[in-house]
Amino acid sequence: MAKKKLNLRDIGTEKHAGEHSHDAGHNHDNTDKTTLQMFLPAIISFTLLIIAIALDNWITQNWFNGWVRIAWYVAAYIPVGLPVLRDAFDSIRKSDFFSEFLLMSIATIGAFAIGEYPEGVAVMLFYAVGEVFQTLAVQRAKSDIKTLLDQRPDEVTVLKDNQATTVKAESVEIGDIIQLKSGEKLGLDGELISEKGSFNTAALTGESKPDSKTKGETVLAGMINLNTVVEVKVTTAYKDSKLSKILELVQNATSQKAPTELFIRKFAKIYTPIVVLLAVLITIVPMFFVQDYTFSKWLYRALVFLVISCPCALVISIPLGYFGGIGAASKNGILFKGSNFLDVIATIKNVVMDKTGTMTEGVFKVQEVIIHPDFDEKTILAMVNKLESQSTHPVATAIHNFVGELDSKIAFENVEEISGHGLKANVNGKELLVGNFKLLDKFSIKYDLDPSSIVYTTIAIAYDNKFAGYLTIADSIKEDAQEAVTKLHNLNVKVTMLSGDKTNVVELVAKELGIDTAFGDLLPEDKVEKLKAIKSKGESVAFVGDGVNDAPVVALSDVGIAMGGLGSDATIETADVVIQDDKPSKIAMAINIGKQTKKIVWQNIILAFAVKAVVLVLGAGGLATMWEAVFADVGVALLAILNAVRIQKMKF
């Protein structure tokens, strides 16, 4: 997936507060400058302008006229006007002839040409002030993502020959041992080799609740050690760490534009030249129809028209609205791969979800063991444990926790995973099957019970072409699963559960949670058919799962949402939206963030068009001055910006 990266490490390297790029949206990054430095040109210009106005109107003197007066206003104009004139020149060089810089340049130079010096300076001054405020707004909107960057320490402490050495995080190799003191942030993903540790995972999940880890468990870059000194064995290179992938995902998100954003950009490229043409016509056409035609009068009206037409409010506030939505989501542990998914998720009418690991903990425990008397229970369980160890499924973990250490003497041949059924292998020259009862049916293994009578998840076992018995395994429902379904229903979203688990187990969970529709005993291709049936009604669908096993369903859905972004690299690659802390209640939150973002974007569009339309008409008719024009441009842009950053303060 080729995406243009927004390199957040380079934020602040641009030349000045008013710098833009219409190809990549407005660029208001200026973190190398203090707020005072950004406002300084405007302060100088404002001071000179106020003195000039005072000399023109309130202070009696006889020297402030002619070339002295013009030079003074030019001096007031240069601090705020020169950067814009330079940007206009750069835009023309890049074949962007109708940029807002050119509009402001023509309007203000035109004002000087007809002797309206105070207004020419004032328009550029307020434009420059507006640009600084927009810069500050953009910086604030990006603060959440920049905070993520701060979670990666540049240096770590590595233990070699019992000696602690501080080295660059990028230079650490897989297998090295990192020493992490209390309060320090982990720089790379690894395995905890100390007996236990407690970590703050807020950088990854948005949750500050401590997460306890024990020896052998995975710990991730960005986690903060809360207690005693711990040691971590590095398992992943710095550039491949989970946090690095998350950062890359969020950085790339701004390059995936929403349809509304793309439309506004295309619209601005057409709209601006038309307005320039209209301004020319406003100046010239009245010459043929108005008896007391005065060129300077109609040129002034055209200049007002040009200032009003500047599309800054739209081109700035709309991308910022989407960026704010992405930032608000990431602050809550939800990662959107692009602003286009914010738009799509806002329209979702159906949420289809997996059961295990999505609405349930995915932490299984063996409930009962039923082994046929013809087989040795200990031997069968040892073989099942060893075979299941080759799977990452939660069921395999439950069996391992129940049976214990693996028997190294057991050797398998021809191990095969049969999708939607289970595992098959040869051991001691005989065939071993471990999976669901459909696996036994597939290989014509006869059994003397009704699988549907067993409520819990069942692991059937066959050895040497004979039914050997089964294990039952139970999972627990997540504590916020009920809340998740309730919130989705409050958003008028229908909830469907599709699972490969037994139908009676799935129906039991669905009934307890109030899920609208549930289907069990489904193979991956069955899930696809069920999803197609929902989409055939013409309604939008989001699928929530692990993003790997359910790849076909994720691809078919309008939005793929991955639960457990901390657990699977492939999840981050596959899904459109990643919920980092496994909480199903975040599904409704993601939809709500999408809805609020879309609402704010359309509020800004309507505000900008409404005000500009009114003032454009007034300007063309000579009823609006440069001051009204400034409000229609800079004022509306600032109002739109303030509205856009509002999403950062919302509680979801």
UniProtKB/TrEMBL annotation:
<dbReference type="Pfam" id="PF00702">
    <property type="entry name" value="Hydrolase"/>
</dbReference>
<feature type="domain" description="P-type ATPase A">
    <location>
        <begin position="152"/>
        <end position="251"/>
    </location>
</feature>
<dbReference type="GO" id="GO:0015086">
    <property type="term" value="F:cadmium ion transmembrane transporter activity"/>
</dbReference>
<feature type="transmembrane region" description="Helical">
    <location>
        <begin position="629"/>
        <end position="647"/>
    </location>
</feature>
<keyword id="KW-0812">Transmembrane</keyword>
<feature type="transmembrane region" description="Helical">
    <location>
        <begin position="605"/>
        <end position="623"/>
    </location>
</feature>
<dbReference type="GO" id="GO:0005886">
    <property type="term" value="C:plasma membrane"/>
</dbReference>
<dbReference type="GO" id="GO:0005524">
    <property type="term" value="F:ATP binding"/>
</dbReference>
<dbReference type="InterPro" id="IPR018303">
    <property type="entry name" value="ATPase_P-typ_P_site"/>
</dbReference>
<dbReference type="GO" id="GO:0016887">
    <property type="term" value="F:ATP hydrolysis activity"/>
</dbReference>
<feature type="transmembrane region" description="Helical">
    <location>
        <begin position="97"/>
        <end position="115"/>
    </location>
</feature>
<keyword id="KW-0479">Metal-binding</keyword>
<dbReference type="GO" id="GO:0016463">
    <property type="term" value="F:P-type zinc transporter activity"/>
</dbReference>
<dbReference type="InterPro" id="IPR059000">
    <property type="entry name" value="ATPase_P-type_domA"/>
</dbReference>
<feature type="transmembrane region" description="Helical">
    <location>
        <begin position="270"/>
        <end position="290"/>
    </location>
</feature>
<comment type="similarity">
    <text>Belongs to the cation transport ATPase (P-type) (TC 3.A.3) family. Type IB subfamily.</text>
</comment>
<keyword id="KW-1278">Translocase</keyword>
<dbReference type="InterPro" id="IPR027256">
    <property type="entry name" value="P-typ_ATPase_IB"/>
</dbReference>
<dbReference type="InterPro" id="IPR023214">
    <property type="entry name" value="HAD_sf"/>
</dbReference>
<protein>
    <recommendedName>
        <fullName>P-type Zn(2+) transporter</fullName>
        <ecNumber>7.2.2.12</ecNumber>
    </recommendedName>
</protein>
<dbReference type="InterPro" id="IPR023298">
    <property type="entry name" value="ATPase_P-typ_TM_dom_sf"/>
</dbReference>
<dbReference type="GO" id="GO:0046872">
    <property type="term" value="F:metal ion binding"/>
</dbReference>
<feature type="transmembrane region" description="Helical">
    <location>
        <begin position="67"/>
        <end position="85"/>
    </location>
</feature>
<dbReference type="InterPro" id="IPR008250">
    <property type="entry name" value="ATPase_P-typ_transduc_dom_A_sf"/>
</dbReference>
<dbReference type="Pfam" id="PF00122">
    <property type="entry name" value="E1-E2_ATPase"/>
</dbReference>
<keyword id="KW-0378">Hydrolase</keyword>
<keyword id="KW-0472">Membrane</keyword>
<feature type="transmembrane region" description="Helical">
    <location>
        <begin position="121"/>
        <end position="138"/>
    </location>
</feature>
<keyword id="KW-1133">Transmembrane helix</keyword>
<keyword id="KW-0547">Nucleotide-binding</keyword>
<keyword id="KW-0067">ATP-binding</keyword>
<feature type="transmembrane region" description="Helical">
    <location>
        <begin position="38"/>
        <end position="55"/>
    </location>
</feature>
<feature type="transmembrane region" description="Helical">
    <location>
        <begin position="302"/>
        <end position="323"/>
    </location>
</feature>
<dbReference type="InterPro" id="IPR023299">
    <property type="entry name" value="ATPase_P-typ_cyto_dom_N"/>
</dbReference>
<keyword id="KW-1003">Cell membrane</keyword>
<dbReference type="InterPro" id="IPR051014">
    <property type="entry name" value="Cation_Transport_ATPase_IB"/>
</dbReference>
<dbReference type="InterPro" id="IPR001757">
    <property type="entry name" value="P_typ_ATPase"/>
</dbReference>
<dbReference type="InterPro" id="IPR036412">
    <property type="entry name" value="HAD-like_sf"/>
</dbReference>
<dbReference type="InterPro" id="IPR044492">
    <property type="entry name" value="P_typ_ATPase_HD_dom"/>
</dbReference>
